[in-house]
């Protein structure tokens, strides 16, 4: 594994594990490292995008923030996959449910990720590419949810470039197509993984329901998000 710095990651000689968990918020990466990992070292602080490596039940795992949006996770995940030999990235974060029967704090897993971004145009494909999660990781999180008795919703999610959309009807159209929820990163992560020949998965906690208008407070979100972390961490041993 290379420990040479890239423009956005400088591990300063520290190791980066083959499995990386990527929350959007670098402070959440720090929380995961301090709460769940043993023998923790920090491998990145460039632009305050904190990254840590430690062990979870004896397996080496890293956790690093991705920032918000497709351009940000596109950069960090690309560098991890292509310059640091990372073999799997599991995105963990919040999601807005697009189906009215999905309550707050339930967990959504993105089997695939639609997008309104032009990120996929770079591949110059003669059609519409469908960014898809790793089956191995997807099956692993479903099995882990059964062990932990956690209810999952598995299906298509939307990775949108727009948080405040001027078209207030757009979410209705995505919902009609069965999309479970909207977030802002997974399509780029899945595409980068496919291009690099590695694995990726998105595991999300429902922070608000766009259909019903229900919304979690900041404190409630912090307390509820540990469930998705505890589902994702065991995947490092697969």
TrEMBL record:
- Assigned EC number: 2.4.2.3
The identity of this protein, by name, is Uridine phosphorylase
Xref: Pfam families: PNP_UDP_1
Q: Which reaction does it catalyse?
A: uridine + phosphate = alpha-D-ribose 1-phosphate + uracil
Which UniProt keywords are given for this protein, alphabetically ordered?
A: Glycosyltransferase, Transferase
Q: Which organism is it from?
A: Corynebacterium falsenii
Gene, per the UniProt record:
deoD
Sorted alphabetically, which HAMAP family does this protein's record hold? Answer: Pur_nucleosid_phosp (MF_01627)
Q: Which domain of life is it from?
A: Bacteria
Q: What are its GO cellular component terms?
A: cytosol
- In its keyword annotation, does this UniProt entry include Transferase? yes
Under Gene Ontology molecular function, one entry of this record is: uridine phosphorylase activity
Domain Nucleoside phosphorylase residues, every copy: 20-227
Question: What processes in GO biological process is this protein linked to?
Answer: purine nucleoside catabolic process
Q: Which family does it belong to?
A: Belongs to the PNP/UDP phosphorylase family.
């Amino acid at each position: 594994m290379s420990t040479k710095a890239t423009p956005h990651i400088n591990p300063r000689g520290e190791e980066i594990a083959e499995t990386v968990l990527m929350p959007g918020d670098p402070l959440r990466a720090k929380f995961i490292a301090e709460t769940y990992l043993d023998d923790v070292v920090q491998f990145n602080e460039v632009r305050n995008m904190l990254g840590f490596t430690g062990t979870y039940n004896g397996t080496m795992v890293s956790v690093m923030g991705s920032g918000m949006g497709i351009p940000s996770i596109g950069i960090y995940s690309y560098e991890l996959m292509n310059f640091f030999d990372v073999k799997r990235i599991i995105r963990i974060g919040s999601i807005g449910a697009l189906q009215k029967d999905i309550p707050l704090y339930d967990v959504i897993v993105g089997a695939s990720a639609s997008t309104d971004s032009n990120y996929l145009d770079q591949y110059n494909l003669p059609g519409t590419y469908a960014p898809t999660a790793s089956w191995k990781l997807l099956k692993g999180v479903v099995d882990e949810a059964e062990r932990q008795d956690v209810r999952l919703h598995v299906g298509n999610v939307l990775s949108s470039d727009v948080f405040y959309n001027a078209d207030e009807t757009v979410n209705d159209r995505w919902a009609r197509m069965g999309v479970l929820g909207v977030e802002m990163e997974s399509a780029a992560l899945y595409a980068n993984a496919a291009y690099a020949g590695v694995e990726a998965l998105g595991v999300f906690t429902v922070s608000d329901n766009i259909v019903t208008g229900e919304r979690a407070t900041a404190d409630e979100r912090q307390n509820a998000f540990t469930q998705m972390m505890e589902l994702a961490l065991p995947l490092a041993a697969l």
